[in-house]
Amino acid sequence: MATLGRVHRVVPAVEYFEEGLRVSRGVVSVRTSRSGSMQATATGWLIAPRLVLTAAHVVDLPAESETPAEGETPAEAQTPAPEGPSGAPSRGEARQWEIASHLRAGEPAWVLPGRLVWQSGPADLALVELPEPPPATVLQISVDKPALGTDLLILQHGRDNPLGVSQGVLVNLDSAILAYDADTGPGSSGAPVLSRFEVVGMHLGWRAVDASSPADGGQDKVQNYGVPSSRIIEELRRSPVWSEIAAHQKLATLASGPASLPFPPVVTGVPLWAAVRWSFDPAALPDSQRRRLARDVVDSSPGATTWSLRPDARMRALAAAGSREALVEARGPEPIPGEDQRRIDHLLRGEPLDLASMSDTEISEWIPLVRWFSPVLPGLPDGSALMQVLAERRLRGRLNRIRGAHFVGRVRELSKIDAWFEAGSGPMVISGIGGAGKSAFLAAFLLAHAPLFVWLDFDDARIAPDDAPTLFAEVARQLELQLPGVTAGLHPAAEWADGLRSVGAALASRQPPVDRLVLVLDSFETAQYGDRHSELWPFVEALSAVVPGLKVIVSGRAPLSDLVLSGEPATPLHLGPLSPEEASEWMDVHGAFPPALVRTVVDLTRGIAQPRLALQLVKGGSSLTGSTSPCPSTSCKAISTPHPRELTGEKVTELARRALVLRRVTEAMLFPVLAARLSASKASLRPDRRPRPRALAR
Amino acid sequence: MARETGKRWWIVVDDITPGADGKPRTDPALLSFFLQFALQMIDPQFARSFRLVLLGFPPGPPPSKLPRSVVVTDTTAQLSDKDVRGFIRDFYDLRGTRYQEPDLDAETASLWESAKGRIAAPNPAAGAPAGAMSLPLGRAVGDALFDWVEAKNEGGN
Q: Of A151, A292, A333, B25, which is most buried, counting CB atoms within 10 Å of its CB?
């Protein structure tokens, strides 16, 4: 195989000739006559089902619009004249057009009369309309610019001849002229110039070109030329039938310029009545208004039965209103149901917000409303003020929620942490399996002592133990809620270490000075995975330096055996199982189990002693109520089954017992967390002897 | 829901961060909630079921706890006529509309001028009420494109 040139140009023959035949059916002969005498013949092609495009010089009439004057030739045409009309027009008489498909010798396949609908002198284009769509192919006009050397076909009618074809290549192209070396003859004006069966131009005539170089023998040369498709499209946009052509050719219909696009009022297109309603029924709106508002509502999908304005659109409309009176007038007197509308009406009446009587949820729901209406209703509380109230409530309220209404037991452990708080040194490390009640225990402790505190929960997506700025941001936020103004001196771009010093100075300068702060590091096992706590301890040390009375509590599922802060070792406190009495009391106050079953559940949970887990299992599974069996349900069995003794292998069993304190057993966690619990030295756990997670996965 | 429907759910959240004035637009607890939601994307099984889009996120990197592998940030701050041109091109391509490159240039210039006209400062002398707010650029471009698409849908290619 040999490919000559850059492109391999062998194509399937049958498909090629079939496509050629199909396209040939879109090329027609064009004849004009006056008073029964034929005046001109040319070629044309269907650009839409009822529209034929041909060369304007075929017409040779005084133009309705842009026809050149008699004797004038198209600007591109040089001598000799274009190959179009034959015979001189006789003015003042009606011209008849005859459009025919004449593929083969003999009678034409069809003949239809035509009517000139438009012509463009400068580009030499004429559009002829047929009374009905003929059985012909609409040719596709190309939107691509052909490259020089492109293979071309010209489908053309010689005078009184059936359709012919010539081949050549593109030799010249600019915005106005397409030149080629394919042969043409009288009657071929208006013929489509094709590349890959798309129309890249329309033939107009021939011209002499100066090629008097020594290589050419110093002789003038002749080129055939036409108008390129880009110019055809550009000119056709001005025709009265452009939309019809564009539709059939799937061509972009362009705006004619910036001024043709609407420049609506800058302020808002949103009516004020919509801005003072939480929602409204789109079906009640006139079509034009519904379409206009569709872009300014949250959900305008066909299934939406009520519309509500987007916040930005609502704010623009409200701000433009200028006064409460304008809002009230736009609202009107009719009652509108709904809690959200009640809030809007509350604001329009100018009634104050009684935050003290509101729930957290209610305050939360007021935040966007005060933001929307505050520009036009002066005196409304700031959204930030609402947030301050809400955040303060949540900080303390969170402790109550975590502790729960019925905290029981842990007397011995509370006594131990109280002693540490009053007189202990160093951090405290609280450990216990998930659900043991560590957070509830800590909340109970904080509520009992009500100290200034910061609670960093490493389950929170906003804080990361290896990202000190996130730690500082949360510390500052919680301190500001409890001691307003303590972060007032902070520079927004301050480094976290500078920020800590600033906050420490503010705490020390208060009257009385703040000399004690409890820092809770909760869900610490999250930080332990992959050792992602590189910046945590330096941060805590820095905080300790600026708040000398800092008391640090680390709470997590895994123990920390070697934690030392400010030179002081940690005090461990393990939250093991509740005593049978405490577990029974816990189950009694939570009322999850029938009294007759409480003892059974306590016995089943044994060393794991997970009353909260048992409760969750019962809630998620079948009820135990009314049953007298010692283990009557799958839920009850589930409490007892995840026990290490069911695993095989002594080492694995021991590891599994320890691994139950973790959220996930990963290889990275085995050594740092479990080694100490196995009472094994690091040296004894050589890498080749370290247990693998997959052993536990069995 | 995702498991029951067997479909991937797209959750798009707007206005959950403070406005340009630093004041809250909604309860910041919503942002906390969705950041926790985003954190679940670390779990491939969870991530297969959801796509979470947080609009109007404050400038700067996302929380460091969110792995870069699950976060993609985009900004409209550099919105330009090139974006408009890309929209027009994509629109035409999707509809199968044919065009020439100069067509895109002309259409882009026209739409961009229209968008800029919409963000001109409100002029009280021209009847704009006191307190009137001009459109942000993104919204102005969106409105211009909305009108343009509507015109295309009503007729023409």
A: B25
Question: Is A267 near chain B, with CB under 8 Å?
Answer: yes
Tokens describing residue A172:
């010249």
CA B23/CA B31 separation, integer angstroms: 14
Helices assigned H by DSSP within chain B: 2-5, 28-39, 44-49, 81-95, 101-118, 137-154
As given in the structure block, the two tokens for residue A124 are 């030499």
- The Cα–Cα gap between A495 and A542 comes to 13
Q: Which of B103, B147, B150 to mutate to test the interface with A (most CBs of A within 10 A)?
A: B103
CB atoms near residue A521 (< 10 Å): 24
Q: Single out the residue of A606, A524, A519, A527 nearest to residue A557, CA to CA.
A: A524
For chain B, say whether A564 makes contact (Cβ under 8 Å).
Answer: no
With CB atoms and an 8 Å threshold, state whether B114 touches A258.
Answer: yes
**Which of B23, B65, B147 lies closest to A382 in CB terms?**
B23
Classify residue B61 by its DSSP letter: P
**Residue A362 tokens, joined:** 């209610």
Q: Does B24 touch chain A (CB under 8 A)?
A: yes
Helix (H, G, I), strand (E, B) or coil at A508: helix
Q: Per-residue confidence at B134, pLDDT binned at 50, 70, 90?
A: low
Residue A262 has a pLDDT of: 43
Cβ-based burial of A657 (10 A; exposed 0-12, middle 13-18, buried ≥19): middle
Upper half-sphere CA count for residue A497 (Cβ side, 13 Å): 5
Among candidate residues A304, A271, A267, A303, the one with its CA nearest the CA of residue A286: A271
Q: How far apart are the first and last CA of chain B?
A: 40
Long-range contacts of A242-247, Cβ-Cβ distance < 8 Å, separation of 24 or more:
A243/B155, A243/B156, A244/A48, A244/A51, A245/A47, A245/A48, A245/A51, A246/B156, A246/B157, A247/A48, A247/B156, A247/B157
Mean pLDDT by 10 residues, chain A (698 residues): 64 90 95 79 95 86 35 33 39 73 88 92 91 95 93 88 92 91 91 96 87 54 91 93 93 62 48 93 88 86 91 86 89 92 94 88 91 87 84 85 82 91 89 82 90 89 85 90 83 83 88 85 77 78 89 86 85 83 76 72 59 58 43 44 43 55 56 53 43 40
Give the single-character DSSP code of A387. Answer: H
Cα torsion angle, A285, A288, A291, A297, sign: negative
Query: Is A454:A395 a contact under the CB 8 Å cutoff?
Result: no
**Is residue A46 helix, strand or coil?**
strand
Collapsing DSSP to helix, strand or coil, A481 comes out as: helix
